[in-house]
Amino acid sequence: MIAIVIGVLLAGSVGVLASLIGLDRDRAFYPTVMTVIASYYVLFAVMGGSSSSLVAETVVAGAFVAIAIAGFRRTLWLVVIALAAHGVFDFVHGHLITDPGVPAWWPGFCLAYDVVAAGYLAWRLRLHRRPA
Fold this sequence. Notes:
It is built from 5 helices and no strands. It is mainly alpha-helical. The protein has one domain (2-126). Helix 2 (29-48) runs parallel beside helix 4 (77-96). It is globular and about 45 Å long. The termini are far apart.
């Protein structure tokens, strides 16, 4: 439960801070965040020393990075979808991929972070104060 609370607080803080200091004025900010988020399970696969996990996590990460790139090029709404979808992925990850490097608290933390980040970006886009 604490991991979820921390994920919510951290995502909200990052979003608000990025808006306050102007980091999210550049449309590359949230696609970059999505790319970093997508890479963590690959890192965990390397840490866990599982080649099969590494392959599976790399394929999934590649799909999320592709959506982030498409979102950067076309519309940031694709990044909202990618962030929310990654939250769903966090929820079912353990049932799809066995990755011994994933900390027990990570899926809850990442799910919370992803959903809040998606919501924050969607809110920013709806207000038409979207990044340039």
